[in-house]
Amino acid sequence: MKLNNFIQKNQFLFLVLIVIFIGVLWRVFEINTFKAFSAGEITILSTALTTIHNHFQLAVSNLSQAVFIYFVAIIGQLSHFNPLAFRFIQATIGILSSVIFFLFVKSWFNKQVALISTLFFTTNAFLIILSRAIDPAMLIILLQLLILYVLTIAFREKNIYLFVLGGLLAGLGFYLSPFFVLSGILIMFAGIAVVMKNKKILAIYRYELIALIISVLAAASYYFYRLPLFYSDLFNFFNPGSIATFYLNMGANVLAVFSNTQTRTILNVGTEPLVDPFIAVTFFCGVIYALFHSNKRKYLFLMLWLLAALIVISLANFQGISNLVLLMPALFIFSASILDYVLTNWTRTFPFNRSAKLVMALIFSLFLFLSVYYNYQKFFYGWQENQVIKSSFTKEFHE
Fold it and tell me: Global pTM?
């Protein structure tokens, strides 16, 4: 009886908890399937072990991945490089990413968009695979979402302490991935453009923006201090070779999300696209809708976010499939936005027609079921039970 009363009074919260529970269950169920490591994971573990043997002194050339290397080294030292420990920590990062993603989307859109997009986020097979493998991608997306959420609340509440926290997190990103460096530059130019267009922002948030800039520079100061020793490596990281290659990378990245990937990798099932066809269709509809409503700040931000992410990953010299994780959050929000728009307008059009509401409820439920079921089959049967994948996770690693 108490549970029924709780559900009736907190229906939306109950739905959110169900979505998060699905994400948790899918990430921890049979988590011990792979009792060894893959070749790529062995490379990361070897770098971490070398760092431990060097008393956690890291080579300057690895400074732009220092956070993840230290992260792996600490887990390895505490767990004696137990595969289950790494699988569990990666799953935890995936779960935290889902929660932060929900909070961020809810702060920008409405609770329906937040719920639908979080369902897509938590059940996407590609993100679940990344939550099982030792790869910095999920940590990158967690930090990105955390920065965006903290700064969103900071601007709304005009809280200088949150600006400082956001700046420190952004500075920390410099030590996690070179993508944060280029993204930071793009955001800086975008910020300057916004301030030049609306100088009231500078007047209102003068001290907060100063605190933000100082905290970013403070957190990234050692990175900038050491930059002359590895700037060539950073330049090569964002050097596709030619403009033609950059555009080819762009096209290949779009195809990888919606059509097929160019190469086979253990982070995917064959050359399958990274999202299911149901989300692919609604995404393109969502983009068209956003273009017609680009005068609204949230849709303009969403389009710029997606475009910036696509440019950054397409400039990379190495086109790894895990880079595409930077596109996923915006993609799910586009898809959820158009679904929310259709549902809202259908309800407004037929406010008293129960049959019309029932038809839409059935269609919408079927759509969500097929999307979730597609990813369920892809992860649990297409990937986890795949003999080729299983044979890739058979390498032992010892201290």
Answer: 0.90
